[in-house]
Amino acid sequence: MRSWPTRSKEAAYLFNPAFCCAVLSATVSNYSQQDNLGMPFPFAFIVLPVILHKQTRNTLPYNTRTSLAAWLEEKPYARIQFYERAISLKSFVREAILFGIVNDWLLIESGRLKSKLVDSKFKNFLQQMDGEARECVLRARLVGKWFAVAGSAETVLSLWEVNP
Questions:
Q1: 24: which residues sit within 8 A by CB, 6+ positions away?
Q2: What is the model's pTM?
Q3: What are the beta bridge partners of residue 106?
Q4: pLDDT in tens, the chain (164 residues)
Q5: DSSP letter at 17?
Q6: Cα(95)–Cα(20) distance, rounded to whole angstroms?
Q7: Rounded-to-integer distance, Cα 98 and Cα 57, Å
Q8: Which of 5, 104, 107, 117 fits a 20 to 30 Å CA distance from 44?
Q9: Alpha-carbon torsion angle 103, 132, 64, 99, nearest 10
Q10: Is beta strand 39-40 parallel, antiparallel or unpaired with respect to 106-109?
Q11: How far is CA 29 from CA 3, 26, 79, in A?
Q12: Where do runs of H (alpha helix) occur along the chain?
C-alpha cells in the first residue's frame, strides 16, 4: 500500500479510511441487529469489494427477501474477479478496521466485529452525506442484514468463491 501522501487523489477519496470504516460500520451495525454476537471478522474483507464495485452495488437487491445464494445465481458476473478485488482491497480493509478501533467505531471481540456506533449516529452521519458515498453506506446496511441471514461464515465466503 502506498503511503498516504503518495496516493492518487482518486485512491485517497475512494479508499479513505474514514469512508471505508463508515461502510464497514454500517454493515457491522445491521449485521448485529440480526446476530448480537457481531459480524464474523472475515466478512470485513468481502464487504468493500461488494460495495465499492459500482456494477455489483447497483444490482444489489433492496431488501433481504432475495437470498444471497439466489442473487448470486441470478448475477453470476458479480463473482467475476471478486477474489482479485478482495485481495487488492485487503490493506484498505485493515486500514479501515484500525481507523474504526482507534476512533471507537468498531471493536473486535471473540473473532467478530462489533459496531460501537448507535443507530441515531448513523442517521446523523447519513444526513450529512450525499451522492455515491451515501449510496455506499445505505447499501452496506443492506449487506449487513443480508450476510446475517445468509448462513455461516463458511457458507457466505464459499458463495463468493473466497476460500480463506
A1: 44, 47, 48, 93, 96, 97, 100, 106, 113, 140
A2: 0.90
A3: 115
A4: 667 777 787 777 788 999 999 999 999 999 999 999 999 999 999 999 999 999 999 999 999 999 999 999 999 999 999 999 999 999 999 999 999 999 999 999 999 999 998 777 778 888 888 899 999 999 999 999 999 999 999 999 999 998 76
A5: H
A6: 9
A7: 24
A8: 5
A9: -10
A10: unpaired
A11: 29, 5, 25
A12: 9-14, 17-34, 44-51, 54-59, 68-74, 82-102, 119-128, 131-149, 153-159
Length, in residues, of the chain: 164
B/e letters for 16-34, b = 16+ CB within 10 Å, e = fewer, are bbebbbbbbbbbbbbbbee
Cell readout for 47 is 464487504
